[in-house]
Amino acid sequence: MLPLLLEPFGYAYMRNAMLVTTLIGAVCAFLSCFLMLKGWSLIGDALSHAIVPGVAGAYLLGLPFSLGAFFSGALAAGAMVLLRQRTALKEDVVIGLVFTLFFGLGLFMISLWPSRVDLQSIALGNVLAITWGDTVQILLIGCVTLLVLLLKWKDWMLLFFDEGHARSVGLRPGPLKLLFFALLAASSVAAMQAVGALLVIALIVTPGATAYLLSDRFGRVIAIAVALGAGSSLAGAYASYFLDGATGAVIVLLQTALFLLAFVFAPKHGLLAAHQRRQGPPPGALQEGQP
Questions:
Q1: Closest-CA residue to 236 (of 191, 270, 267, 189)
Q2: Which UniProt keywords apply (predicted)?
Q3: Predicted confidence pLDDT, tens digits, the chain (291 residues)
């Protein structure tokens, strides 16, 4: 039994996949806490789809697709910030405009040269087929992003909680937001290789949403989200070997299962806890402490 359980660790491609997905899961989970805090989950969705034209263009030009994806994601993030600052449009309208523009452009490029673009890799990812060079690149992106998050998380927490107070203490919201979007775009590029463009949003939203059900303290929310993101990504990559299924899909299904468990059983915000509050205290509880 033990040799069977250890079998995935005997293959280099599985070790690479588990290493990469664990780091990506941790970084995306860290970012997801801020997206939940600010209500920006749709921005994560927009960026994850906005990288499609960059990937398609990189394939056509023979360039590293991560370079094209990051350029496209950064351009989309800049467009969202510019439209939000220079127009009276609301955030959801800006996100919808940028999302549809970039995703439509990507699909148009793919339709023109379908034989030259690997649509399945873009849409679903293929972490088991990444080379060692891709692994090093993803590890660099993940480590740099994680380092910046650890150094700046308190600034972003203050900014996203109360932008006016952040300005009063000397923080500059514009550059901080652009830096956050750049990290989000870079993480989306890395995550796309693991789960594909269609499922990146799950890694960016689900761990944070689960953690918010389990705690009201932001520091603890981050710790829970990172643990869930990294652990579920590692477990999903490992389980995909035995299930013979798409690694990204297994990871997302596992994260969704954890969210559903928290949704039902969370001690304060779960369905059972809410039901108990509606039912009132158990019989005899009101008499406790009475003579």
A1: 191
A2: Membrane, Transmembrane, Transmembrane helix, Transport
A3: 788 888 988 888 899 889 999 999 999 999 999 988 888 777 777 777 788 888 888 878 888 777 888 888 888 888 888 888 888 888 778 888 888 898 889 888 888 877 666 666 777 777 887 778 778 888 888 889 889 988 988 898 888 888 888 888 888 888 888 888 888 888 888 888 778 877 888 899 999 999 999 999 988 999 999 999 999 999 999 999 999 888 888 999 999 999 999 999 998 888 998 888 888 765 555 555 554
